[in-house]
């Protein structure tokens, strides 16, 4: 299938791009980035050095994925999603000298398989977004998001459980089970929600 890279995009020859991946207009992929198979990158996507992205990931227009971000297989990243990687950002040191690449600590962010991040969501670093979780558009994620959780708001808070198909599922308080309209069952056991 090969890799498709638009002529307006700049992709480092030291980046790894999986077969079938499409990189559209005005994207930049830095050295050391690892992008899996069959990914789609919309217009204006920036992938920083050493970012890791799995297979079958969709990254919509104007998303920046900075060093410290790892995105697993099958994740949807909506337009204008903002990832951060520094909890105490400054341009200068207290003596007003410019900060260098060695004057700060990279914060890590992990987005697990199947998760979806809505348009204009902000993901503050040092968090994990769980498998099949959903972050509502415009939300600000400041702490870990459990598997199958729908979170929304600023700061993002738990709102409902969601199936891997994306529909909300009500879990019975007594049994910890719920069935989606698609027929899949979610089960909460030891505080963790997964398909049953």
Word description of this protein:
By secondary structure, the protein is mostly beta strands. Helices cover 0% and strands 34% of the residues. The chain has no helices and 26 strands. Strand 24 (177-179) and strand 25 form a beta hairpin. The model has no long low-confidence stretch (mean pLDDT 96).
Give the gist of this structure.
The chain is mostly beta strands. Helix content is 0%, strand content 34%.
Total beta strand runs:
26
Largest sheet: 10 strands, mixed
Radius of gyration: 18 Å
Q: Write down the overall mean pLDDT.
A: 96
| Spatial ordering of strands, largest sheet | 1-4-7-10-13-16-19-21-22-23
Terminus-to-terminus distance: 36 Å
Order of helices and strands: EEEEEEEEEEEEEEEEEEEEEEEEEE
**What low-confidence regions span 5 or more consecutive residues with pLDDT below 50?**
none
Shape: globular
Lay out the secondary structure.
Blueprint: E1 4-5, E2 10-11, E3 16-17, E4 22-23, E5 28-29, E6 34-35, E7 40-41, E8 46-47, E9 52-53, E10 58-59, E11 64-65, E12 69-71, E13 76-77, E14 82-83, E15 109-111, E16 116-117, E17 122-123, E18 127-129, E19 134-135, E20 140-141, E21 149-152, E22 157-162, E23 168-169, E24 177-179, E25 185-189, E26 192-195
Parallel strand pairs: 1-4, 2-5, 3-6, 4-7, 5-8, 6-9, 7-10, 8-11, 9-12, 10-13, 12-15, 13-16, 14-17, 15-18, 16-19, 17-20, 19-21
Antiparallel strand pairs: 21-22, 22-23, 24-25, 25-26
């Amino acid at each position: 299938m090969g890799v498709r890279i638009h002529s307006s995009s700049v992709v480092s020859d030291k980046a790894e791009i999986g077969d079938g991946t499409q990189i559209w207009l005005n994207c930049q992929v830095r050295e050391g980035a690892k992008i899996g198979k069959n990914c789609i990158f919309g217009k204006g996507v920036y992938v920083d050095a050493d970012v890791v992205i799995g297979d079958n990931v969709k990254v919509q227009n104007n998303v920046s994925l900075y060093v410290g971000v790892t995105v697993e297989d099958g994740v949807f990243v909506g337009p204008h999603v903002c990832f951060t990687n520094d909890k105490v950002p400054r341009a200068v040191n207290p003596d007003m000298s410019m900060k260098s690449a060695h004057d700060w600590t990279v914060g890590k962010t992990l987005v697990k398989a199947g998760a979806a991040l809505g348009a204009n969501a902000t993901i503050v670093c040092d968090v994990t977004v769980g498998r099949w979780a959903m972050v509502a558009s415009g939300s600000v994620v400041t702490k870990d998001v459990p598997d199958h959780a729908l979170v929304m708001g600023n700061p993002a808070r738990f709102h409902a459980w969601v199936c891997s198909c994306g529909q909300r599922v009500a879990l019975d308080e007594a049994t910890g089970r719920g069935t989606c309209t698609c027929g899949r069952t979610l089960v909460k056991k030891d505080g963790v929600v997964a398909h049953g």
